[in-house]
Predict the structure.
Amino acid sequence: MVQAIAGDAKLALGDRFFYPRTSFLLHIRQVLYCHAWVPSKEMQDTLLDSWDRQAKIIDNLFDLVTEDLKHAKPSEDGMPIYEQFAHIHNTRRFWLSKFSPKHLEGYGRSFVQVGEDDWKPVDDLAQLRDLLKASAKAVHEATDGALSSGEWEKGAYEDPVYFLHHMVWHEGYHFALVSLALRLAGAEPSEEWEGEHVWGLWRFEESP
Ligand code: NI
């Protein structure tokens, strides 16, 4: 009963962005379990577009990395830049395997096995860039599918949005480490570059 009231309250408060699925049975389920609401198509598209923008920022960062700079590190014990990128791809792979394993099909690994328990990161920048483009698409499609169908592997994530935001947050962290490595190597991204290739992707040009 309490859940039913909570569900109705959410309908009243949240109908700008959320709507119940049209099926009557699903609607009943959603009134009983208010967490089972799905975003409107418009909100879903915006959410996925925000992922594409963040993946574009990771891709833009590649433009600053040369063969020499790819060995730069953010700290003495940190991963070199090429490994930061390999790690981002590998992390997408790992959590996709928990969230939606079928989306792992069709793209490769950023770590190559060189011994029984020994893996070496790919250091070819063009190859890493292609891998990241493919896994960015896989994350988009897996999230889109989960939001549209309400179906995903429930073990690791309560909601597809948490999977997506986990990826965004993780990649922002490594974006900063790559930026720091570039700075320590004397190739800090300029404010103008960041304005055009990072922050400008989130807002209108004329905003402060
Ligand atoms: Ni990490």
Q: What stands out?
A: The longest strand covers residues 111-115. The two ends are 48 Å apart (CA to CA). The domain at 40-201 is CATH 1.20.120 (Four Helix Bundle (Hemerythrin (Met), subunit A)).
